Amino acid sequence: MTGKPVEYALFPRLLRDPLTIGDGRGKIEILHETASVVLKRSTSTKGVFRGLHRQVAPFEQTKIIRVISGSIFDFVTDPNIDGDPIWYSKVTPADQWIRIAPHLAHGFYALEDVVFEYFCEGRYAEDAEESWFVAPLIQKALNLGDMQLSDKDKAGAPLQRKVQAVTGEHPEERRQP
Question: pLDDT tens-digit profile of 118-143?
Fold first, then answer.
């Protein structure tokens, strides 16, 4: 057999030149995107806080996340349940993939420089995103140093919740509807 190898539709290649958006806090690369899924890789410098965010109907997203290098505090809460804590746990590369249900607001704090990947089931729609401003609450509860936030994260709706460590399994797994 001679000639160029065939790229089969069943095994499409990821984007050779991914869309990259960044600033002094890090960057995000869109590695693959279709009408129903998105694969992203982000880098964040130590002290960056991202979140809390979620998308609402009809653009909900289930996220499957993992840390490639570095470590984070990972945060989730269900904004629709009064009194639901902001759950957190430390996540490292050893934790592999973690599923975050679409009804949960999600964010993370980079404990060190971090490379983070996430697979989203459902397309991103900026107009369908909800954001909550919880950085000062988390900073105080966990005695964290300075936090670097985006303007979007600073403009989120304030959300006052208890910050609670996960004991046992990750709340994203045990709190699925």
Answer: 999 998 898 999 999 999 999 999 99
Tokens at residue 55, please?
């998308």
pTM of the model: 0.85
pLDDT at 85 over 50: yes
CA distance 95 to 112: 16
pLDDT digit string (tens) for 39-54? 999 999 999 999 999 9
Quote the strand ranges of the chain, DSSP E.
Answer: 19-23, 26-33, 37-44, 49-55, 62-69, 72-77, 86-91, 98-100, 105-110, 114-121, 129-133, 157-158, 163-165
Q: How far is CA 68 from CA 113, 149, 161, in A?
A: 11, 22, 29
Tokens of 102: 């679409």
Mean predicted confidence (pLDDT) in 87-100: 95
Residue pair 131/153 in contact (Cβ under 8 Å)? The answer is yes
Among candidate residues 40, 45, 48, the one with its CA nearest the CA of residue 19 = 40
Q: How many CA atoms lie within 13 A of 61 on its CB side?
A: 24
